[in-house]
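Pasting as-is:
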Amino acid sequence: MTAERAQPSSLAHFDAADLLDALSTGIAVLDRQLCVVYANVAAQDLLAASVQHMRGRPLAEVLAEPNGLVGILARALRTGETFTDRELPLRPAATPRETRVTDVTITPLAGVTGTYLLLELADATQRQRISRETDLLAHLDGSRMMVRQLAHEVKNPLGGLRGAAQLLERELHDDGLKEYTRVIIGEADRLVALVDSMAVPLRSPNRAFVNVHELCERVRHLLRAEAPPGVEIGRDYDPSLPTALLDEHQIIQALLNVARNALQAVGERGRIVLRTRALSGISIGSRRHRLVASVQIEDDGPGVPGELRSSIFYPLVTGRTEALGSGSRLPRSS
């Protein structure tokens, strides 16, 4: 009895285009004029255009802002070398307000009819966002440590100031002058209480099952009372959201802070929309969640200045020229 020899596996029954379309990396082929010859499904998604729409057109026409990509492509074509660029922002012409962050690899290919360029596009938007959120969390941890150290250092001179005011009050016989020392003592006590609230951990959330739309409506009513007549306060709710275990007061305060920022951004005339959605596959910090409830506050104001977008969520940062709340004085771009 002879053992049957195993037959080698074959990919002959697979179509090459089907294999390329199954990749999560975008693959595009360009000719010497940098016109699109082929693009797989992932590349079509990243460039926000179908292969039928792109074929025969220069890649620069597919993008609203090539951001140096065309120059790199031309250099690869001229030198015959492979080039790689990480986290290159691309803005498709079909969706000019949406920026896609991609890792780009360009490889020259020698074909029968001439040289072509193989363009690989890997979506790095999610990785960049996770990296930015990780940096933000690290920055916030450092800020908390700095606040605790500052609180410890501030309490010592406040104690001395209060003690000196008490000694001075004992030496004064004029009640009118004693009133000033009482003000000093009262303000010192208030500052100590403020420092203590900054230095100690926040209280545990008082959570209960609530409807997030009820909280949004309370914020909307408060906002309508503060808004000028020319500002419209709209709502766009997803009725599928279930009740959630939340601290009602903390959520209302957080939403109200963001909504008031939007109100200041639109000025005397504009539109603010409170929107809720159910989102899937979202990363918060280093943890990925299968399903989350999203509450968004959208306004049609001038937006965040470009120079502040990477640091807007850090403490003491604002785009307003006047110092409000805990924001620092940073100019708003026109």
